[in-house]
Every structure is written in structure tokens, then in C-alpha cells.
Amino acid sequence: MSLSPRMPDLSSLALLVDTAREGSIGAAARLHGISQQAASERLRAVEAQVGSTLLQRTPRGSRLTQSGTVLVEWAAKLLDHAHELDNAIATLRDDQAGQLTIAASMTIAEHLLPRWLVQLRQGNGRPTINLTATNSDHVADAVRSGAASVGFVEGPTAPKGLRSRSVGADELVLVVDPAHPWSRRRTPISAAEIARTPLSAREHGSGTRQVLDKALAAHGLEPAEPAVVLTTSTAVREAVRAGNAPAILSRYAVESDLASGRLVEVPYDGLDLTRTLRAVWAGSATPPAGPVRDLLAIALRG
Q1: Backbone angles phi, psi at 299, to 5 degrees
Q2: Which stretches of the chain are DSSP H helices?
Q3: Which of 126, 130, 175, 280 ranks highest by number of CB atoms within 10 Å?
Q4: Alpha carbon 42 to its chain's center
């Protein structure tokens, strides 16, 4: 049966729901990759289509009217079902193609995913796996755009606009080469001293950089300009081993070097540099059935 002209399209309903969740049209527009003006015009078109005012617009943001609250409640349920259908179609397509597309942050891609993928391919289906290793911001972008079926990120918070589930934890450690003066320190390095020291660092957008910046900001500190900026944890580790500036890296990335003495861990004081490792996906609260859900089950088992 055909729907009446009063029924808005799904993308417009999603924009309305996100406006309610974010508290502003501008924030919802950013999630949808459109301008605030375009989002505002689309929402006014929805109001005209429904025949009721749905949002109270104020300089501080947008709030739902009573009618808007009712419509968002119904729309959220409809969108959950639509996401389930979308995921089911994607699963059918992936099953037909025999492919699983993954985007993962560098630490997870290098140190955790290889073991998970071996276990996945030992199960049923043996999908062809396409893996892109990049920083956490780019992983989130790939999942939002549909370029990746599932992503794995590291950082202080879950990416906006995506579903997420914790699959583990990680600790960042301060490391130097054995000839560095800090390798002989008997007292921990303070947060202030770390902040004013140019480090060997990852680029902006990496989970490692985000965690450090947030931890320093909690003390009212801003990090010094890095001595060198590199795009992988492996490159940063090798730079430190070659005698470059100290670095803060995942313990996963330097575990063997610490055990062999090629790097030295330097204790620090006053910084919380633990982080959550997350799987992220788009759509409904339940991960898509098939290889994505199987991979998450393996990741959760560790």
C-alpha cells in the first residue's frame, strides 16, 4: 500500500531525531554532513508536511514541542527497524560477495585484530576480509559513510553518531631509549614536565593523541609542539629507539621492546592514560548479523 503525503522520508526523520538528541539543529546538521541552513529548511518542510510545529527554536538550541516529542518517539522506533533492514540488506550483500570490510585504529589493527581474524576465519563462512588501518577519527568517518561495515577505535570517548561496544582496555606508557636521561630517573615525571616536553607523537585524530591531550587538559595543561609527528605507532616507536624524543604509546606497541631493554618505561605521576577500546557500527543498537557480529563476539572473548 502507498503512504500518505503526510509521511516524511526516513532521512528527514533521522535529522529530527538527532536534533532532539543533540539539542541543536547545528549539531544534528554536522552529523548528517549538511549545513545548518539546509537542516533547518528540511525540518521546516517536515513541520509543513506533518502540519504541526515540532521544534521550539531558541538562541540556546532547539527543544521539542509536545507534538515533536510524540513524533520523535514514533520515528525512533521506525528508524531502528529501518536500520535493521539496512543492516540485513548489507549482510546479504556481504554474504553474497563473501567480504567483510573493517576499519581499525593502528594499535588494534597491529596488535589485536590479527588474532581475532584468525579465529573468525576458522569459523563458518571464511569471509574475504578487507582491513584499513588508520587513526580513530578516520575509522569513525569510514563507518559513518558505509565504507566499512565495522570499526575499532581507541580514545577517551565513543564517536558521535555511531553505536559502540567496549571490547577491551589499554594503557599508555611513557618510553625513552636507554641512553635518554629520563631512563635513570628515580622519581616519576610530572604532568607539567610531560606537557612542556616536545615528544615523538602521533598525528591529530589518533586515539593516542586524544587521550594524552584530554589527560593534560584535566590539569589545565596544553602539550608542547611535538618534536616529530608520525602516522603510526610503529614509526613513533622506531623513532624513540633511534634516539629521538620520548613518546607516549600503547603498552601493546612497546611490550616486546620493554621486555628486551630496547626501550625503557618511565613512570609518570598525576595522569590518567588508560583508554577504552571500542567496536563501532552504524544503525540499530544490535550489531549487524553475520561476520560483523561474529567478529565482535570474538573480540569480547579477548
Answers
A1: -60, -40
A2: 10-22, 25-32, 36-50, 66-97, 106-111, 113-122, 136-145, 191-196, 207-217, 233-241, 251-260, 291-301
A3: 175
A4: 28
pLDDT of residue 90: 63
Query: 154 - beta bridge partners?
Result: 277
Report how far apart, in Å, the C-alpha atoms of 266 and of each of 4, 109, 149, 269 are: 67, 26, 39, 10
d(CA 227, CA 37): 41
Decide: 236 and 199 in contact? Cβ < 8 Å: no
> Quick check: 163 and 295 in contact, CB under 8 A?
no
- What pLDDT shows up at residue 5? 79
User: Distances from the Cα of 57 to the Cαs of 18, 28, 37, 276, in angstroms?
Assistant: 15, 14, 13, 36
248 and 273 Cβ atoms separated by less than 8 Å: yes
> For residue 19, what pLDDT is reported?
87
* Segment 265-290 mean pLDDT: 91
Q: What is the pTM of this model?
A: 0.64
* 9 against 61, higher pLDDT: 9
Which amino acid type is present at position 1? M
pLDDT at 202 over 80: yes
Question: Could you tell me the pLDDT band of residue 214, with boundaries at 50, 70 and 90?
Answer: very high
Identity at 191, one-letter amino acid code: A
CA distances in angstroms from 59 to 25, 195, 237, listed in the order given? 11, 37, 48
A 10 A CB-CB count for 80 gives: 14
**8-state DSSP, 124:** S
What does DSSP say about strands 150-155 and 99-105: parallel, antiparallel, or unpaired?
Answer: parallel
- Give the three-class secondary structure for 230: strand
16, 65 Cβ separation under 8 angstroms? no
